Amino acid sequence: MHTDNPTILLRNLSIGYDNRTVARGINAQLNSGELTCLIGPNGVGKSTLLKTLAGFLPPLTAPDTLWIGGEGELSKRISVVLTHQVKVENMTVRQLVAMGRSPYTGFWGTLSDTDNAIIDKALADVGVQDFASRYVSTLSDGERQKVMIAKALAQQTPVIFLDEPTAFLDYPSKVEVMRLLLRLCHTQQKTILLST
């Protein structure tokens, strides 16, 4: 159900760290409206690939093509949800989701009416608007993961990367998160790449 509108193009990408090659010759095209899963055992390079695509690690050699989400700042093209659980004290769900607007709010982080409307929509899109005023530290693992997805949506990027988004979740929560991500692909034409 994709639009064949490429948002990620990779040609001859080599990844690794500390001069150690993890994988080479990676070629891929991912399209708007697609959910793509990187599936494999620990240690095969799934996280390394996501971190390279997100700009956290450099490619080992210059790829023939590495195009993601268009032109401009990475923070306006890619949202990233990493494996580790966010540990924040005294921060509400809404405040955490609002951090997704930081690429647009400038140095002082002042939220406009437009920013607030985008935050409200992101909260509603993942179904966490009813506990927007709760502290993040009181959330279950499944609720916390949804909040992190809402933060990624508030960032308004065409591409979202998630590194093992269901790692800490029980089975019903895993299914719920995967259904949510698939729905977001289809309704908002996001390109979602996740590892599992």
Model regions low in confidence, pLDDT < 50 over at least 5 residues: none
Biggest sheet overview: 4 strands, parallel
Task: Tell me the strand percentage band.
Answer: 15-25%
What integer is the average pLDDT? 91
The spatial strand order of the largest sheet comes to: 3-7-6-5
Strand/helix succession: EEEHEEHHHHEHE
Share in helix: 25-40%
The helix count comes to 6
Our Rg estimate from Cα atoms comes to 17 Å
The 3D shape can be described as: globular
- Overall SS class: alpha/beta
Calculate the terminal CA-CA distance, rounded to whole Å.
22 Å
- Tell me the total number of β-strands: 7
Structural descriptors:
196 residues, alpha/beta, 7 strands, globular, 32% helix, 6 helices
